[in-house]
């Protein structure tokens, strides 16, 4: 096993059948060795996991019409910026091109999953988060809510 820079951090492989028989191991036994020091050196700064919320998530969907040239990544960045820390997940679930949105335009439909760490979000709060996200995307990309 190698790190991306080529440093060897371990070896893993199937043991030879003679070794398996001599040690009375199950057939096709695999063994491995890791250089823990090399793994620790490769990790850099420790990653701190976010505290899990015990409050329920809420979902809301939004469809945005943008020019065909606008990348979905720009729309997603605006949604993330506008929603803030309560955004738990963002999923693009539909892309529509056709007469209903006009020539040279596309509709991107997203599901926003939001959750507050300290309370259950009310419907009004979820709607306000969505509206803030839409406003941020509109400012950044010229998107219009469908």
From TrEMBL:
Q: Which residues form the FDX-ACB domain?
A: 53-146
SMART domains named in the record: FDX-ACB (SM00896)
Among SUPFAM superfamilies, the record links this protein to: Anticodon-binding domain of PheRS, Class II aaRS and biotin synthetases
Query: Could you give a single Gene Ontology term from the biological process aspect?
Result: translation
Grouped into one coarse class, the protein's main location is cytoplasm
What UniProt keywords apply to this chain's record, in alphabetical order? Aminoacyl-tRNA synthetase, ATP-binding, Cytoplasm, Ligase, Magnesium, Metal-binding, Nucleotide-binding, Protein biosynthesis, RNA-binding, tRNA-binding
Reactions accelerated catalytically: tRNA(Phe) + L-phenylalanine + ATP = L-phenylalanyl-tRNA(Phe) + AMP + diphosphate + H(+)
Which Pfam families does this one have? FDX-ACB, tRNA_synthFbeta
Q: What is its EC number?
A: 6.1.1.20
List GO molecular-function terms, semicolon-separated: ATP binding; metal ion binding; phenylalanine-tRNA ligase activity; tRNA binding
- The question of whether Membrane is a record keyword is answered with no
Q: Name one GO cellular component term.
A: cytoplasm
Query: What cofactor requirement does the entry state?
Result: Mg(2+)
Q: Does the keyword Ligase apply?
A: yes
| Subcellular location(s) per record | Cytoplasm
Q: Which PROSITE patterns match?
A: FDX_ACB
By its UniProt entry, which Gene3D superfamilies does this protein fall under? Bira Bifunctional Protein, Domain 2, Ferrodoxin-fold anticodon-binding domain
Q: Of which family is this protein a member?
A: Belongs to the phenylalanyl-tRNA synthetase beta subunit family. Type 1 subfamily.
Q: Give the quaternary structure.
A: Tetramer of two alpha and two beta subunits.
- The protein depicted here goes by the name Phenylalanine--tRNA ligase beta subunit
What taxonomic classification does the UniProt entry list for its organism? Bacteria, Bacillati, Actinomycetota, Actinomycetes, Micrococcales
């Amino acid at each position: 096993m190698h790190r991306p820079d080529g440093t060897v951090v371990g070896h893993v492989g199937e043991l030879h059948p003679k070794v398996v028989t001599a040690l009375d191991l199950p057939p096709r036994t695999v063994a491995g060795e890791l250089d823990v020091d090399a793994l620790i050196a490769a990790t850099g700064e420790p990653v701190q996991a976010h505290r899990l919320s015990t409050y329920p998530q809420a979902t809301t969907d939004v469809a945005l019409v943008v020019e065909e040239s606008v990348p979905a990544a720009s729309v997603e960045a605006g949604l993330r910026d506008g929603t803030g820390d309560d955004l738990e997940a963002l999923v693009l679930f539909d892309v529509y091109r056709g007469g209903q949105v006009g020539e040279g335009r596309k509709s991107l439909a997203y599901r926003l999953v939001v959750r507050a760490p300290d309370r259950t979000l009310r419907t009004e709060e979820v709607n306000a988060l969505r509206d803030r996200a839409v406003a941020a995307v509109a400012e950044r990309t010229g998107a219009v809510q469908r």
